[in-house]
Automatic annotation (TrEMBL):
Domain HTH tetR-type residues, every copy: 16-74
Naturally occurring in which organism (per UniProt): Pseudonocardia alni (Amycolata alni)
Alphabetized GO MF terms: DNA-binding transcription factor activity; transcription cis-regulatory region binding
PROSITE patterns in the cross-refs: HTH_TETR_2 (PS50977)
Keywords associated with the record: DNA-binding, Transcription, Transcription regulation
Domain of life, source organism: Bacteria
Protein's name according to its UniProt entry: TetR family transcriptional regulator
InterPro entries assigned to the protein according to its UniProt record, in alphabetical order: Homeodomain-like_sf, HTH-type_TetR-like_transc_reg, HTH_TetR, Tet_transcr_reg_TetR-rel_C_sf
Length: 194
């Protein structure tokens, strides 16, 4: 039997919908229970396990796709943050918006850190890191931020502080409402000229 272009296009559209449903279900399941299985994710998505495995050969591959999606959507949101003007004020706006995204995705991020290689997690954060780097470099150039430590170190510490705050909130040692102020104070202790 010859398949028509319309039939192939419909199947592709169906496959795209299944992938989207699987990713949405994975976020929901992994946020509720980090050890959620592929079977649980397929059930939540309303698709069969065979269909889920047809799109994602393993749980690790699915987790990778989920994190890539979460980071991409977060990057799109952060692109809307006004980074003009005073670098210090701009960085504070960026930190507060970044924290909101990290807080929303902290369980998924913890799953990713347990299942994906560190270099993959770093590569997924390349675009957000570039935005932070440009802002910190602008602050270094105008004297707002110290320039006696490598900018790559400053970015790495900021990243770790954000995700460390997520872990502290998850452990119940820091209230979510307190985290942005703690993160900002810690980062500016790192960046402020001595």
């Amino acid at each position: 039997m010859v398949r028509t272009t319309a039939a192939v296009g419909a199947k592709r559209a169906d496959a795209v919908r299944n992938i989207e449903r699987a990713l949405d279900a994975a976020v929901t399941c992994l946020s509720a229970r980090p050890s959620a299985t592929m079977a649980e994710i397929a059930k939540q998505a309303g698709i069969g396990r065979v269909t889920l495995y047809g799109h994602f050969a393993s749980r690790t591959e699915l987790v990778d796709a989920v994190v890539a999606r979460v980071v991409e959507r977060g990057d799109e949101a952060l692109a809307q943050v006004d980074l003009d003007g005073d670098p210090r004020a701009a960085l504070e706006r960026l930190i507060r918006n970044s924290w909101r995204l990290v807080d929303e995705a902290r369980t998924v991020v913890a799953v990713a850190e347990a299942e994906l290689p560190p270099e993959r997690i770093r590569s997924l954060h390349d675009s957000p890191a570039a935005r932070v780097q440009a802002l910190i470099e602008r602050g270094r150039d105008d004297g707002s931020f110290r320039d006696d430590t490598p900018v790559t170190w400053q970015i790495a510490v900021l990243h770790q502080v954000l995700h460390g705050a997520g872990a502290e909130v998850a452990a119940g040692r820091v209230a979510p409402a307190d985290a942005p102020d703690l993160i900002t104070a810690t980062v500016f202790d790192l960046l402020d000229r001595r």
